[in-house]
Prior knowledge:
Elements lengths: L12 H10 L2 H12 L22 H22 L3 H9 L12 H4 L2 E2 L2 E2 L5 E4 L9 H16 L4 E4 L24 H11 L23 H13 L3 E4 L3 H13 L15 H9 L5 E4 L8 E4 L3 E4 L8 E3 L7 H11 L4 E5 L6 H11 L5 E5 L2 E2 L15 H6 L4 H9 L15 H7 L9 E2 L2 H17 L7 H28 L21 E2 L7 H14 L7 H7 L5 E2 L2 H10 L4 H11 L9 H7 L6 H13 L9 H45 L1 H9 L1
Parallel strand pairs: 3-4, 10-11, 12-13
Antiparallel strand pairs: 1-2, 5-6, 6-9, 7-8, 14-15
Amino acid sequence: xxxxxxxxxxxxxxxxxxxxxxxxxxxxxxxxxxxxxxxxxxxxxxxxxxxxxxxxxxxxxxxxxxxxxxxxxxxxxxxxxxxxxxxxxxxxxxxxxxxxxxxxxxxxxxxxxxxxxxxxxxxxxxxxxxxxxxxxxxxxxxxxxxxxxxxxxxxxxxxxxxxxxxxxxxxxxxxxxxxxxxxxxxxxxxxxxxxxxxxxxxxxxxxxxxxxxxxxxxxxxxxxxxxxxxxxxxxxxxxxxxxxxxxxxxxxxxxxxxxxxxxxxxxxxxxxxxxxxxxxxxxxxxxxxxxxxxxxxxxxxxxxxxxxxxxxxxxxxxxxxxxxxxxxxxxxxxxxxxxxxxxxxxxxxxxxxxxxxxxxxxxxxxxxxxxxxxxxxxxxxxxxxxxxxxxxxxxxxxxxxxxxxxxxxxxxxxxxxxxxxxxxxxxxxxxxxxxxxxxxxxxxxxxxxxxxxxxxxxxxxxxxxxxxxxxxxxxxxxxxxxxxxxxxxxxxxxxxxxxxxxxxxxxxxxxxxxxxxxxxxxxxxxxxxxxxxxxxxxxxxxxxxxxxxxxxxxxxxxxxxxxxxxxxxxxxxxxxxxxxxxxxxxxxxxxxxxxxxxxxxxxxxxxxxxxxxxxxxxxxxxxxxxxxxxxxxxxxxxxxxxxxxxxxxxxxxxxxxxxxxxxxxxxxxxxxxxxxxxxxxxxxxx
Length: 686
């Protein structure tokens, strides 16, 4: 909108428009905004002088104000990126008001499954010890743990659901227990390996225990009696054989096989008498009283079944509760606010809602996670190695890498977050926006997180690692690497047939057997691991396994064989003057070792530095053509004693070459040719 021009000015329309456009942007915006919202001209804060040809707000002032506004928005955006955990710490210290300048509290509030993060969430993981943890169950435990961590004052609970019997509802026979003897112990161990901790559980106790369902049978019986007394449930005395016959007949007739409610009409007095007489029975919920409950799942949205539930069993003949009853009773009594589980339980949730209504309880928030599936979309079998948690433990996968990977299966991290070091970092990084439906495994992403976490560990000084991180580094990296070096060494000493020659990158000749380890790998176990850590600190970005590092960086673990040195010296002449400088540098005082390379470089003209580094690579690796680490890394890792040994060996070979002349050179060249894979293949063929 262009303001009207005073008649006294007598200016053409285009001149008026030009004057309007020359006015600062803020002035034009203020005028337009004030007209739209019908501002009060008596309000000094909204007055803008537009009547004079030359505004009091010149262009420079307008640009400055725009710059200030842009800077303000950027500052606000940066404040919004501040770690939530850091903000909470500040607030606890009285340094933060909880508000972000320029935005309302509602705009900056974080939500987790529809609930503000400043409200506590009590979540639980309730495995059944009928088997061991697999990838899917660990992922469920992880998300329950993360949701609790991400909420202010949240708690994660562990409950063991060990009431799973194999008896048939309606039967008076108690079948064999399905529980696996060591499963509960393995569950604890695997969760601890994964880095998950819980505030309450069978091993820790808590205000709402006991936390094993087998120790809560009286509680379930009391609650079943409550439902029978208020008419929400009834006893069913049908024999299992009769029920099976009814199901077969209904199925053959093309009708629903749901329980027909045969015992629903039995008078309460008769039911009490038959139960008191010891007649076997189950207890069923009168589902017809509750219709078809509907609810809004935090992930899948509104959900309601078309048909009402059958009168499902609450208490079996053996006195044990079914999953549905025990689950609802425990979640309520333990004050669980969010039930987070696999989507296979989505279809059962209306049953649980009916129970909540029968008891007169407020149901928790339900969130059902999409299931992990294979690449072709089919359900993953527990026999599949990619599902078994032991597979990842045996592969020395870091628990935090596995957790970050699982958290990204069906969810995602915020943009720009760093690789997580702790579980709190994962909770902070997650958007808590979940994918519906089947979620395909992505092994490449696990490799990425394994790589990133390993690099993260080696960017942190050794003394700053937590005790858990020190154990992980030792067990997942150092021990496997040292063991691999010893295994390769042993294979090279047994026979040529057992040994697969190592082949440094960039070289044409593999190292022949036997191999000689560096002295650092012949000392105590602690010293060997300390040396392996020194190597890994320098080499974290390229290789995935201990075998890769050992075979592609052999010069850190074994001394180059003399035959490798002879081949290199015979193939290309070495500047003796530069080599002598190297020899002097490594044989200098040990006190000056840290500065040995710098002083060596100072003695060599800058134009000859490439020749010097070629000689250093020859001495350290055994070949001037090898692709290896920088000279500084080679000096740092190998150390002065090893450099002295290798320079002495090269010096003696140079002396031998100078004395022998062309004859010895040709002899060494012939030996080198015989070491090449092509020559060996030819010899085998002949």
